[in-house]
Amino acid sequence: MPLRVGPCDFGELSRVGTAVFDHPGRHSRPYRWRSLFARPLLLVASAAFSCSLSAAERGMSPFRMLAIDLDGTLLSADGKVSPRNRAAIHGALAAGLVVCFATGRNLTECQAVLRAVGHYDAAVFVGGAMVIDTRTGTTLHRTTMHPDLAREACGLFESLGHAALALQDTSIAGVDYLVTGSIPLNHATRQWMDITAAAVHPVPTLADAAHEHTVRVGICSDADEARRVQKRVLEALGDRAVCHSLYVAAYGVEVIEVFDPAVNKWSGVMHVARRHGIRPEQIVAIGDDVNDVPMLRAAGLGVAMGNARPEAIAAADRVIGRVDQDGLAAFIEELLDAAPTAPAEAQTR
What we know:
This protein is α/β, with parallel strands linked by helices.
């Protein structure tokens, strides 16, 4: 029987590309290798040490959870789920893995995706600001913006000539977005609202709105304007907020997003993981954009798409195929073939 090292054996390491060692009391997080032969002396030493311990003492466990971004990772540039990606997701579920979608969209904007994939469970929305059980629509966790911060950010957007978009906790507010009514929405924003059937409520100015249920504020613009606006936002808000600029390939626009500083996808993923008794080193995170960086860095294995932004690639342990090549499906197929998985513990209700 081959020696087990984390999620896979030595004969399989060259295919998976990552070995995980987690010796209690020695490391705060796993070591990672991009290939079998990287850091060979440390690999041999760690393996020898591992042989002297029982499986329980080594804390060995296979990957038990996939945290998967949607746009640019699961979804093609036109927002579609390929048959191969869908089959790979269901293959992972059949193998006992927890599959957690982690997206910048809200639940309304994901309904068509969820139907196309046919997978409903706890998922991370709005870049980590919300965790929702998609089977029931129940909000499991949310982080709203402080109303003063939301008003300040919206006032800045409006002063720069942009209609601000304030994403709401829809289950409480009854609408998806509050939008600036005194400034016209650009074409890409109107098209997105129409496609996703998002419920929109215009108000004269969001700089004076109550923002009781606002989880994110932002705008859509072209890339050059997005850089200008993001620079102004960062100068004005500093570390009082998180500000992302994300590229939406389907419309060729950038989306500027502003959140409470505690919000990121990884915090949302860990909220789901704790419900299953899953540890960080048992999670594979897969993404392509700057809002995926925290989970790519923190997960047991961070995987960037071949079409990912440089920031995501730099944060990842491994780069796989592009979304238009079904890179996600190919990786999941490889992972399932190379590393046995253990069924997740029953979810805590």
